[in-house]
Amino acid sequence: MRNPAGCLPMTLLHTEASAPTAVDPVIVVKGLDKTYAGGFQALKPIDLTIRRGEIFALLGPNGAGKTTLISIICGIVNPGNGSITVDGHDVVRDFRATRSRIGLVPQELTTDAFETVWNTVSFSRGLFGLPPKPAHIEQVLRDLSLWDKRNNRIMTLSGGMKRRVMIAKALSHEPSVLFLDEPTAGVDVELRRDMWNLVRRLRDSGVTIILTTHYIEEAEDMADRVGVINKGELILVEQTATLMHKLGRKELTLQLHDPLAAVPASLSRYPLALSADGTELTYTYDTQAEHTGITALLGDLAAAGIRFRDISTRQNSLEEIFVDLVRSR
Amino acid sequence: MNWYAIAAIYKFEMARTRRTLMQSIASPVLSTSLYFVVFGSAIGSRITSVEGVSYGAFIIPGLIMLSLLMQSVSNASFGIYFPKFTGTIYEIHSAPVSFVEIVAGYVGAAATKSVIVGVIILATARLFVDYRIAHPLLMVAFLLLTAITFSLFGFIIGIWADNFEKLQVIPLLVITPLTFLGGSFYSIHMLPPLWQKITLLNPVVYLVSGFRWSFYDLADVGVGASLAAIAGFLVACLVAVGWIFRTGYKLKS
Questions:
Q1: For residue B59, which of B39, B81, B74 has the smallest C-alpha distance?
Q2: Residue A325 domain-assigned?
Q3: Using a CB-CB distance cutoff of 8 angstroms, which residues of chain B are in contact with residue A104?
Q4: What percent of chain A has pLDDT over 70?
Q5: Which residue of A lies nearest to B82 if distances are taken between CA atoms?
Q6: Looking at the 3D structure of chain A, how many domains does it have?
Q7: What's the complex ipTM?
Q8: Is A277 helix (H, G, I), strand (E, B) or coil?
Q9: ABC transmembrane type-2 domain location, by residue (chain B) (predicted)?
Q10: Looking at CB atoms within 10 Å, which of A249, A264, B34, B150 has the fewest?
């Protein structure tokens, strides 16, 4: 039965974590690099601090090093040089303390096909060193709409349901840090919506969430901060809003009253683009510049006798910023 | 020590046994019963006795050891190989478990299964022949030590193997021939003198000999040598497993 409220009760979630603050790091990565046995350098020295209670989106093209970074923090891949601490505990020397705090939903749908949903989620809780707590497992399954499927073998479930099972496994030991590696890859719209609702609720309860996604509009919508990684190098870490503000460009589009054959020479100093049918002029400007040039442009348009019937502006998306950043490297 | 993790892995592996009861339990019991019929009754009826023990009874320790070795290796190797194959091994790596706990869970379950098979075969043998157990405690000790040691060996094979063929190569091409040539069905004293010496290089000889001694006080080699051989192999396997987890060989990149 589906939980109509769609809410994850507070009892389910780790509540030790405090509200997000700028000076309360939960994960600190210092000078971490990674070169695989074949000589491929997956990570160049990386410094990164994840703040307690935030949603941090790690963006990057395929092969950029996102999964390697997550895998090292979680203990799946051996680290190179540098250090990582989780709540002040070193991930190598004090792996029990760090791993018990972390839940991981990996990118691949890797499940125990022959096991039932209940057994596999209970197995995960035991593996993380916690005594059985059927009430918690039941709550997780209900919140992920898996309760009706608890006795089903995983091999009989759809891809979306398997993804939910993997999330349930990651939440079985009540982690305070949750890694979601491409959680919405290949899932339908409903599950994506449910998943982001769940992520919000987890964050609201104090869980720190680090996610990677190719759906950059989702990161723009969800993340408190964004990190962009490319070719193993962390090229940017910024508050999402600040990033949009700093690197966001705007476009001013003018719907012309009369079509133009070409941009008049008197307007050549402006970065203007004329649509193919000559009915739209688009002016791109930097929101951070001292002068946007809009006032002067409108004056010069009037002087040139160009009239327009409508005007609109559009902010470029995080996706466009991301593409620009990655291309510029 | 993360006891809950050990219990979780152990129960998970034992659940797999229950799901595959025919393959895990019934199949080795049936095949061993066939050995009793063929070697014990059909051929064995023409062999009066070996060193005072009826041939049917003489082969019991060897048959149990044959199943024990095969079951221990295949259970443990498959147990760790399967999560590698499906990718679910990520969860083991990301959990707060040490290699000792991982090994205890997988090897403990594999050894339990093979001991269960061994005990069932011992009980089944009673249907065909009469036998005695002269040193029950040492018999149990041999049974447990062999099951644990060869489960460790199987665990190493499961980590080393990166496809199903490799998983089968060692049990089929190494364990089975060594077991058949290790005195399971005969006393090595029946061999020509040169082969008696050569066969002492086969470690399974020491296992079968020691195990048979615990039944009938009959041994091809001294019981001390048998215990030393199995203890030596156990230590070698432990060292290898320790090295695997320290280096991440075939487990972590």
A1: B39
A2: no
A3: 90-91, 94
A4: 91
A5: A112
A6: 2
A7: 0.84
A8: coil
A9: 19-248
A10: B34
User: What's the pLDDT tens digit per position in B77-86?
Assistant: 999 999 999 8
In a domain, A1, yes or no: no
Please name the residue of chain B whose CA is at the shortest distance from the CA of residue A120: B12
| DSSP count for chain B of H helices, then E strands | 12, 2
Indicate the domain borders of chain B.
3-247
Buried-exposed string B93-113: b where 16+ CB fall within 10 A, e elsewhere: bbbbbeeebbbbbbbbbbbbb
Q: Name the residue range of residue A263's domain.
A: 249-316
Q: How far is B151 from chain A (nearest CA, A)?
A: 21
CA distance A214 to A185: 8
Answer yes or no: do B4 and A100 touch at CB < 8 A. no
Alpha-carbon distance A316 to nearest alpha carbon in chain B (angstroms): 38
Q: For residue A280, what pLDDT is reported?
A: 92
Q: Please report whether residue A110 resides in a domain.
A: yes
CA distance B172 to B150: 14
Residues A73 and A219 in one domain: yes
Interchain proximity A110–B87, CB inside 8 Å: yes
Q: Which residues of chain B are within 8 Å of residue A75 when distances are taken between CB atoms?
A: 93-94
- Mean pLDDT calculated for residue range A268-295: 86
Contact flag A129-B5 (C-beta cutoff 8 Å): yes
pLDDT digits (tens, 9 = 90+) for A148-183: 999 999 999 988 889 999 999 999 999 999 999 988
> Taking a C-beta distance cutoff of 8 angstroms, is the pair A299, A270 a contact?
no
CB contact under 8 A, B88 and A110: yes
Instruction: Judge: A131–B4 Cβ closer than 8 Å, yes or no.
Output: yes
Question: Is residue A34 included in any domain, yes or no?
Answer: yes
Nearest chain B alpha carbon to A80: B253
**Is A126 part of the contact surface with chain B (CB cutoff 8 Å)?**
yes
